[in-house]
Give the backbone structure.
Amino acid sequence: MSIKQVAIIGLGLLGGSVGLAVEEHADGISTKGYDRNPDVRARAVERGLVGTVCDTAAQAVSDADLVILCVPVGAMEAAAAEIGPYLKNSAIISDVGSSKESVAKALTKALPGHTIIPAHPVAGTEQSGPEAGFASLFTNRWCILTPPEGADEAAVAALSQFWTKLGAKVELMDAGHHDVVLAVTSHIPHLIAYTIVGTASDLEEVTRSEVIKYSAGGFRDFTRIAASDPVMWRDVFLNNKGAVLEVLGRFTEDLTALQRAIRSGDGDTLHDLFSRTRAIRREVIDQGQDDERPDFGRKDHS
Amino acid sequence: MSIKQVAIIGLGLLGGSVGLAVEEHADGISTKGYDRNPDVRARAVERGLVGTVCDTAAQAVSDADLVILCVPVGAMEAAAAEIGPYLKNSAIISDVGSSKESVAKALTKALPGHTIIPAHPVAGTEQSGPEAGFASLFTNRWCILTPPEGADEAAVAALSQFWTKLGAKVELMDAGHHDVVLAVTSHIPHLIAYTIVGTASDLEEVTRSEVIKYSAGGFRDFTRIAASDPVMWRDVFLNNKGAVLEVLGRFTEDLTALQRAIRSGDGDTLHDLFSRTRAIRREVIDQGQDDERPDFGRKDHS
């Protein structure tokens, strides 16, 4: 099974980056793209996000060996239903969504009988839209495939090879397990960041101006994540409810324990935790998953 | 009142950066420094963190016009008591601690009759120790002075001028208000980051290896803050207990409201918050308090 023609539905940060990465890293693969927003399509043409920007989803997918849905997870079912009648029988249908059980269910419902291999490249920035994509987004990042039981092995191999070409490292995982892992490493961090940024801007005792001015004390880090796309993230929380609520429960238990330690002046408990967490940072850096420079190498430290 | 000779007690990230910033930005001011750890003193000599590294705190402060205590806030009282007998009568005593009511109390107790002007430059990185300091740490950052009622105006002016020379913008504030503002913009963000990194590493369902591998989904940002100095942060929480617990209460209320929205599938509440927080990020960047490049300009996006 050989992937020669790829259709990208949705030309935001992820869709645009897939198109640019194919252009830069995957000789012999052509791309067509579609976005339901005509302004996005126009900008995609200007930036050359894909080889051909199509005016309908049907045109984009009709000769595709691989279709990648790059839309919010809540929009997957509708996007899949729209392309269904125009797909080649042999096409692999995949996506880049951050929750995988819900996406598998939506795609299976909309496209019965088709070869569906959901995927999630764990990569992104706080920016979104057709300006945001870039070719190296997936370099050295993990892409998790969650093939359903009995999935076509050749299709899984072809999709793995595709993501490897784009610079990613590929891992196969059960969709349910994916959803718990990502609740921990992505969804709850986003929920917490959105929350604290909201809390800070709503306090009566502290002005918004003060929050901004003194944000270098740590708060500014959270504002980056809390600037992420609102629709994408709304959909993630609604579509990974079970795992998110489970991990959130653990987090609030742990936070309550620290609250108690602060109230009772239990410095040892605080010190023990604060020492343990340092080692995790070291491992993240050692495994090439973050910039080792202080403060992520922000330019104000040049 | 003219500051010609500055003593820096504690030669870690903050003390070292003050010394290097004076050397680079403040012609005509000399520095002496002391750290109770002889290995740190030796490294301070090698890096040239201060003009003269002294073997005792007494030697460092005896001719100083300004003494800056750069030790964890829980160590302020002991450090102040140690230098008390050797201070010039005219010396200004200041610090860089992240909680100001507790520091004012500790310094007033240890150094009755002296001119005490607590200060807090809102700047830092996740690194610590004598390797971590650099001369531009305070550039374009705010330094908050919390002079007690009736403080010597000339001393406040001299200290303001000193921090301005180092590149900082100076603001005067009541110590109690400082402690609430910093609870929001620094202390609670650190507490949350430490907590989620701890939660993630303790889960049974998700391995530590998975947490590290997929950390680019957002989690890795939190590992940076959670790599901060454990002793410094233990002391901050123990010494700003009231404001930290108050702001933490607000945060957990807001988080509980979002939890309820997720459980009940209330997408509008999620979308409303996620849209509001984007504007805060924009202001942080517009006011020069963060790097505008996506993902803080991390090098894996080059």
